[in-house]
Each structure stands twice: as structure tokens, then as C-alpha cells.
Amino acid sequence: MDKPVVLITGALSGIGRATAIAFAEKGATVIVSGRRDEAGKALVEELRSFGSEAEFINADVRTEDEVRALVDQTIARFGRLDVAVNNAATEGPVGPITDQTAESYAATFDTNVLGVLLSMKHEVRVMQEQGSGSIINVSSTYGHAGAAGAAVYVGSKHAVEGITKSVALEVVQSGIRVNAVAPGATDTDMLTRFTGTPENKAALVGGVPMDRLGLSEEIAHGIVFIASDEASFITGHILNIDGGLTIH
Asked: What is the DSSP secondary-structure string of 70-93?
């Protein structure tokens, strides 16, 4: 499709923002979602500067009524939904397992897992009606590895990858593809918060064969590819974009 309608959650910063720009540069219609009105409106103006149709819809992915409205408003405005990128996420409270609580678990899983589940529920609902669509969930290399001091975040990304594969099988006969991308250490505000200090952040580079952090734009290009018709025989796949980190 020359001008797909693309919905991106968690679109106002980092990988989500870079993905919105990458799709706009390709001529897509882009609906960006998040919880900060000013940032959303500013991003829409930037996307329109590329000649893209763009809209901002404020929504909290932890609340089903807001997710349902987000998808329904997209359909009402543009008539279809071709690509959905579920990027909204939080690193949650980082620390040893002995510091974790029911509250820290919920703070992470409600966004990273429930948010993906609710988003996919309503994206699939409309994509099944049109008989086509591509869904991309944003995971992490931690989704298939461990990390000391990040048990809750790691668990949430394991869940995202399991949900991705299960739903891919569930909807494969409906003309819908479901995949995930798993960024490695990527230079974002989330990584800065996650690592806590510049020294901890810099230390991550030592484990990356390409000897640098990734860029949000590089993750975005992978998302655009796996969403595209060029990836039409790919579903249920977790695409690592990590500078060689997960080479075995």
C-alpha cells in the first residue's frame, strides 16, 4: 500500500518518535498517541512538514476505554488501520528482587504488558474486519535474556514476546502479521533513566560488538521494514536490532 495508515503508541519520544518520523518520510498517514498534549501537537506539526497526514490522540494504554477510543477514532478519521506499532513502555523501578513490590510490578506490567494486550485486542478487532494489517510490538533484547537488577522489566518483555508469537498464530489466517522488534542498548532517555549514571550507560557499550549504542532512528528503520510489504512472509518473528549483542 502506497500510503498506509499507521498508529504508534508511546510516540512522543525516543524510538516511538523516530518511528513516526520514519513513516512520515515514507509518505504514510501517521497517528501518534501518548499522554502529553503539547508534545503530541508539536510532533504532528513536524510530521506534516514532511507532507504526511498526521493526527495526535491522547490515550493511556493501561485503560481499555481509551485504547478502544484511540483505535475507533483512527478508523473514523481515516477509514482503516494498516500498521500498528505498540511502543508505549516504562522501565519501571530498577533494583534487586528484594526491593520489588506488588506496586512496582503493577507499575511496569500495566504499561508494558497490559498496554500491549489491550492495544492488540482492538487493533486486531479492526484489522480482522478489513482482512489485513501488520502489528509490531517493541520488546527488548532483555525480552530473551536476563539482566541483574531488572527482573520486573525483563519479565515484562518476556511476556511481550510470548504474546506476540501467540497472537501471530491466532490471526495468521486473517491476513494479519504480528512481529516484534527487540532493540539492544539504544541511546534514549529511557536508557539514561534505566542505567542511572553516565558510567553505567557507557559500560553497556563494552558488550556490543559494534562498540556503540544504537540510535532510535536505526530501530525505527527496522520497524518500517518489518511492517512493510517487503516483509510479507514474516510473522511471529522477534527482530533483534542490537549491534550484534545477541550473536551466539
From this structure: HHHHHHHHHS---EEEE-------
